[in-house]
Every structure is written in structure tokens, then in C-alpha cells.
Amino acid sequence: MSSPSNKRRPRYAAPSGTLLLREVPAHTGAPGARIIGPALERVLRETPAARCRLYVLTDLARPVAAAPLAAALLETGAPRHVPRWALLHTLAVAVPHHGRGLGHRLLDDLLMELRADGVRAVWFLPGPGDDGLRNLLESAGFRDGTDRGLSPENERTYGYDEPEIRPWAAWLFREL
Fold this sequence. Notes:
Elements: E1 19-24, H1 33-36, H2 38-46, E2 52-59, E3 70-76, E4 85-93, H3 102-116, E5 121-123, H4 131-139, E6 173-175
Parallel strand pairs: 4-5
Antiparallel strand pairs: 1-2, 2-3, 3-4, 5-6
């Protein structure tokens, strides 16, 4: 007879179908804009659209017109150069899809895509209400980078680094 502790349910149910990460133009009518919410408009007011990257996670088993399952909004360096860094503004999963591991999947695929594009560090500056995203990032290896010497107005940041790549600044931070 097995004990109840031996029959634990997995923390996340596997998504049905094949998931695809894709970059879409960052604008208020873009797929994934509703998931990101007002952060997209705010970032587009403050940052040139050419420096914004909007990534969406879609399920290929769903109809083509179906809304994405999750989205992430980043800012990268100058558009004509290979970006060496990315600033993660937000990452969100659509409400009906919470608890299925899609935030982890989106983050894993996103970091792999950024590294392939030449990005070597990803930064996130947590604010009020970012505890869920901060926990997700920390579980993915981001760590506190406050000891990396950014200016006093950027004192509280987080990150992760791999030993072969050296950081250039500090925030929740991860080198790729």
C-alpha cells in the first residue's frame, strides 16, 4: 500500500499541442498585447519601437486566429547592432492558462532565442506587484545584481550569470 505522499500530482499540467515562440511587431494591436496590458503602451511611449521586442507563445494545435497563451516584452540595444543586453519589462500568461507551466516555458524559450540573437545579459528591475514574475525569474537562475555597481537610482536589481560571460551592469539579472 502506498502512502498519499507518493502520489503527488505534478505541479504543472503539460500544455496540449505544440508550443511555438515567435517575435511579433510591438504595437498596441499586436497578438499578446492584451496579455501584457498597459505595460506595452507605457514602454512604447518611453522607448523607440525599433528597440522593443514582443514575444508570444502560441499553441499550434489551436486555430491560427486564437489568442497567444503568454507574452513577454523586452527592450534591446540599438536596432542596427547585435544587442548585447535585453531589459525584460514584463512577462505574463493569459489568465485561462495560469498554472500550466507556460511562464516557465516562455522564459526558457525566450532566453534561448535571445542568446541565439547575440544577447548576453537579461535584466529585470522589479517593482511593486512583480513578486510572481520575480519568483519565476529567480527559479530560472536570475539573481540579485545589486553588487554590480549601477547608479544609486538602479540599486535594486536581480540576475544570473554563466561563468564564461562577464556582466557589465547590475539588476534581477541573468547572463546567457
